[in-house]
Design brief:
Layout lengths: L5 E4 L6 E4 L10 E3 L6 E3 L7 H9 L2
Antiparallel strand pairs: 1-2, 3-4
Protein name: DUF7836 domain-containing protein
Organism: Haladaptatus litoreus
Pfam family, one: DUF7836
C-alpha cells in the first residue's frame, strides 16, 4: 500500500513539512502551524494546488 501525504508550508514562518490527509482538518477548518502557531484555514497551508486537491479527495 502506498501512503499518501500532503506537503505543507506555513505562510508566516516558512516551515515545510508533510502530513497524512487523515491527520489534517478539512480544507475550510482552522489549522495551527506546529512551529509558530499561526492559525489559518488548512487550505492556506497546502504548498501547491496538487496538494490541496489530494487533501480534498481523501477527506
Amino acid at each position: 500500500m502506498v501512503e499518501t501525504y500532503v506537503r505543507l508550508l506555513c505562510p508566516e514562518c516558512g516551515k515545510h513539512w508533510e502530513s497524512s490527509p487523515d491527520d489534517l482538518p478539512t480544507p475550510d477548518k482552522q489549522f495551527h502551524c506546529p512551529n509558530c502557531h499561526a492559525t489559518r484555514r488548512t487550505s492556506e497551508f497546502t504548498r501547491t494546488e496538487s496538494d490541496l486537491k489530494t487533501l480534498k479527495q481523501l477527506q
